[in-house]
Every structure is written in structure tokens, then in C-alpha cells.
Write a structure and sequence with these properties.
Elements lengths: L9 H11 L10 H4 L6 E5 L2 E4 H11 L9 H27 L6 H15 L3 H10 L4 H22 L7 H10 L5 E2 L2 E9 L13 H16 L4 H8 L3 H5 L3 E6 H8 L1 H9 L11 E3 L2 E11 L3 E2 L7 H28 L2 E3 H8 L18 H4 L2 H14 L4 H4 L14 H5 L9
Antiparallel strand pairs: 1-2, 1-9, 3-8, 4-5, 4-7, 6-7
Helix pairs in contact: 1-4, 1-7, 1-17, 3-4, 4-7, 4-17, 5-7, 8-14, 12-13
Amino acid sequence: MHKTRFISFAAVAAVLAALFLSACSGGPAANSVSGADPNEVAARVNGKDIKMEEVEKGVKAQSQGQEAYFSPLELASARLTVLQQLIQGEVMFQKAEKEQAVPTDDEVTTEMNKRRTASGLSAEQFQKQMEKAGETEQSWRQNVKKELALQKLQEKITGRVEAPKDKEIEEFYNTNKDQFKNKRGAQLAAIVIDPSNSGQGDVTTNQDEANTRAKEIGQRAMSGADFATLAREASEDLQTRSNGGDWRYFTEDELRQTFGNGVADFIMTKMTAGSIIPQAIPLEGRLLIIKLQRKQEQDEDLTLESPGVRQRVADLLVNARKNLLWQSYMAIATNEAKVENFLAEKVVANPNELSGARPAAPPTATPANTNANTASNVNSNAANASNANAATASNNAAKAPANTKPAAPPAASNRAANANSGR
């Protein structure tokens, strides 16, 4: 079984996530948990300070507010992970500045206005959400600016990759024929509504808000609104938002494993291309508005001349090269930067001062079984994002026979084998 995620370039996703950490947490209140000085400098990148306040807000965002239950040892580990993400994000933003890939003020304003409109909130409601996240108009503008800058930098750097030659396409196909099989199944698109604050442009922050939002977006989709446009406006997931909702191909077996027999039967027997499931589908804590892009009625072996196969191989090779180029560019940029990690130095200097004991949970705390692995999840999730580079080429195979399932429902995707799912 392959782990699958909503992913374009895993490496840049990790960096973008780092840039948005401070925009998605509960703001300065996070500092009260740890007693950390918000003005303390946690690290310095080429002379640019990263404050502890940013680190604390990042920890709060990634732990979804459960950092109060971390032991000092777990909290220190989570901080170091978040800080490394912030360092990498700052390194790449500085490279974007040098490469003149920073968006103009007008471009940033346009994007901010698009996100305000996509939120579906009134100006007053939007402002309350900003305050709840500890954000100001200025800090939010800076976050959007950094996101757009990294996207522009990525496009500029990877734009040098040329299309593969026919010989390369044929060689790849001939050595990977088993990956080019159409099994009976369906290509799906999805709009993700996330009740938790996952740090990917969320508008909803609790289940009630998510239910209301999913109903509203679903009704718009069912009423004929362009699904790709809706996904770019409303999906609370970075990759589905950027891909216009495009998700992945599911074999019929994968549909049953992921959604259950009822949904699978409905998709395979009741739906036609372009139709939308008339209710939001819950999956691993999130709500999905699902559209059927196309349906494969029978198993089919594909040749290189089958419709779309040659282009799919070309896309796979191009994306693999782009990923490798981007990873290499990031590695060089990081090596060239002067990075001072003061937080890491503190740990090295005082390795025995961190206790592994957890604080006692208050009576109203979330049940222990829910929070037991929160700290390790923060670290593993961040590590997975940072280390996804090793698997990026296969994960990004441009809707080819690699893993392209969204991270919006991450765990369920683990149950679905993708050896034959590339479409």
C-alpha cells in the first residue's frame, strides 16, 4: 500500500506551510502555555530574526490547540520542528526576493480580496476570524505575499524543464507497462471543508461552521457553479485549492475501501460524468464535496497510443524533473544561507533539563486517548512534510500511475492501493 496525499510539489508545500503557521493559530495566547518570551529570537536567517512568538503560534497551529498537554520534552521537540520549517520558509522567501519573484502590492491585494470573497463571510465576521487567529491586516498581507512569492519562484526555477523526447517517453512506457491499466473505477474531484484549523487557509474552525460551510458550498455546486472555480475559492486544503479540486482516480475496490459500499455503489451505478454527490461526505474528520470527473466501466489495458497515455508519461517525466530541480535548488539555497538556530543551541547546551512528564489534564480536557499522541503527531506530520522530497517524484506523477490522492483525507488514502490507479 502506498501512502497518498493531495500534493503538487511536496517540498514547496512544506515551505508554504511553514510560512502560514502564524496565520492559523490562536495568536499570542499560545505563549501563556509555555511561558516563552514572544520577543526572544529563536533563529536568525541571513540577519533576519525569527521570533519565538512565530514558533509558539506554529506549534499551536500544528497541534490544533493541544500543546497544553505536551510535556516539556515534547514541546521542545515540536518547537524545533516548527522552527526548522520557518527557517526553510525564510530562506526560500529571501531567494524569491533575490530572483525578483516577489508579487506586487496590487497582486497581493487582489489575492487577499479573492480570499475574503471566497470565505463567504461578512466584513465583520472576517475581521473576527482574523482577531481569533491573532492576525492583523499587515501580518496577513505578509503571509499572502510570501505564499505568492514562493509560488512564483517555483514556477520560475522549474520553468527551465523541457518536454521529454519521444524516445524517453517510449522507454518509460515499455519499462512500466503494468502501471498503465485502466481498472473499473472513477476519477473524482473534491472540495475539502476542514473543521479544524489545519493551517491551509481554513475558514471553518469547528464542526458547526464546517457543516454550514459544506452545505452552502454544496448547494452552489449543485446549482451549476463551476466546480473548479469553487474549489479554488473554498477548498480548505492547499493542493486541492490550487488544483481546482482535481483529486485522483479510484478503482472500484479503492472506492469501497475508502468510502464504503454505499457511496461506491452510488458513484459506480447512479452517477454520470460531471454530477455531484448531493451531500457532503465525511472522511477522516473532514467534509468532502465530491464531483465525478469520469467513470471507467470496464478494465482496460492501455497502449502508448491510447488517448492521454503519451501525455501522461510526458507529464510524469516533466514533474519528476521539476521536483528534483526544486529539491536541489532548495538544498543549495539552504546551504548558502547563514542560519543561526538559537533554540537548538539551547537544547544542546542543556539536554538534561527537559522533563518527559505530562501536565495533569483539567476536568474539561479532551479525552486522553485523543491527545495521547498529539506531540508525536506534530513532529511526524511536520517531518513528513519536510521529508516528502524523497517521494515527491512518484507522488507528483501528474495524474499518472503514482500517488495523487489528497492529504485532505490522509489516513483513508493509506488503505487504497495505487499501483493501478494512475489515470
